[in-house]
Every structure is written in C-alpha cells, then in structure tokens.
Write a structure and sequence with these properties.
Layout: H1 2-16, H2 37-68, H3 71-76, H4 78-97, H5 108-118, H6 121-133, E1 139-146, E2 151-158, H7 163-167, E3 170-176, H8 183-186, H9 190-197, H10 203-214
Helix pairs in contact: 2-4
Family: Belongs to the iron/manganese superoxide dismutase family.
Enzyme class: oxidoreductase
GO molecular function, one term: superoxide dismutase activity
Length: about 220
C-alpha cells in the first residue's frame, strides 16, 4: 500500500523536470584554430539551447494531450519530439567527444576494436570521414557500437535523428555536419571542416563510452 501511495507523487516530480543546456567542459575558444570561438558560442548557446527549449515545449504539450486522451495531438507532436530530442541528445554527446587536448589516435581496447572491425585506424578515419562528407543536406556521421553483433559500426543519420533511437547502435563518436557547425569558418567546404575536427576528437571520452556500453 505504501509503495502505491508513492507512485503519483513520484510521477508528478518527474513530470516537472525540464531539460537543461549542459555546460561545455571547455571555453568557447578552446578548440581554436580547428573550430573557432564564434562557431562554438553560436552552436552551443543558440542552436543547442533552441533544441532544449523546443523539446521542453513539445513535452509539455504532449503531457497535456496525454492527459486529455488526445491521440491526434500526441501523434502530431512526434516529429517535434524526435527533432528537438535528437538535437539535445546528439549535441550533449558531441561536446564531450571534443577536447582541446584531443586528436591523435585512441589507445587500448578501443584501438584494438577499430583495427579488428576496420582493418586499421587510417581505414576507419577514411570511412567515417567519407560517410560524414556524403550526408545530403544536414545530419551526422557516427561511430556506434552494435551490441547484438559485438562490433563497431559506422552510420549516418539525417537531420537530428538520434543514432540509438533510429538505428539501435550505441553512440560513441558523433560528427555534426550541419552547416551551423562549420560554415562561419569553413564556408561550404565540408571536407576541410572534417579534416580539422580530427585534431580535437576526445579519444578518452570515446574510449570511456566504448567500455561502458560493453558491460
């Protein structure tokens, strides 16, 4: 009985929680010259913040529709939840995938897995770069972990589609190829941005994600 009485209050508590914009683990200028401060500031404080704000609005509307039993509105809100929820999920991963002390190559278990599944680090880098360059319009290039097969896998997602929610792969490393991620510095030359971003990849973070998802 006591546990049953706790259900409603706990549900109310959860329903009041709002998504918030995470702080960056470094300054806006920390990734220069590879990604300049202006891009980072706009990307984080404007674009990511907008996804968070719009996700909270969409969730509030969804809760209202759920309470009313309004299935039509629930269905109509799915694109907004997917787009803004994905934008929040993707960028939250992206910021931690980057570091002013990044670059080089991974070590240990992750490096062994990359060699096993792609032949070499150079092959992996070439394939992820090619997939990211090839995204039509806006989207992301990803290194993910296929838990069922126990192997690493490269994938591309359109727009803000979240990797795990749309492919089942657990995200390890995401490369944002929306133009807002690079246009102010690299104009429309996406390959130049992708060449530069490898200098700030936080392999410690990617390795940590790999170790966690294998447990």
């Amino acid at each position: 009985r006591s546990s049953a009485k706790l259900v409603a209050p706990l549900e109310c508590l959860v329903s009041r929680q709002k998504h918030t914009l995470p702080d960056l683990p470094y300054d806006y200028a920390a990734l220069e010259p590879h990604i300049n401060a202006e891009i980072m500031q706009l990307h984080h404080s404007k674009h990511h913040a907008a996804y968070v704000n719009n996700l909270n609005i969409a969730e509030e509307k969804y809760k209202e529709a759920l309470a009313k039993g309004d299935v039509t509105t629930q269905v109509s809100l799915q694109p907004a939840l997917k787009f803004n929820g994905g934008g929040h999920i993707n960028h939250t991963i992206f910021w931690t995938n980057l570091s002013p002390n990044g670059g080089g190559e991974p070590k240990g278990e992750l490096m062994e897995a990359i060699k096993r599944d792609f032949g070499s680090f150079a092959n992996f880098k070439e394939k992820l770069t090619a997939v990211s360059v090839g995204v039509q319009g806006s989207g992301w290039g990803w290194l993910g972990y296929n838990k069922e097969q126990g192997r690493l896998q490269i994938a591309a997602c359109a727009n803000q589609d979240p990797l795990q929610g749309t492919t089942g792969l657990i995200p390890l490393l995401g490369i944002d190829v929306w133009e807002h991620a690079y246009y102010l510095q690299y104009k429309n030359v996406r390959p130049d941005y992708l060449k530069a971003i490898w200098n700030v990849i936080n392999w410690e973070n990617v390795s940590s994600r790999y170790s966690t998802c294998k447990k």
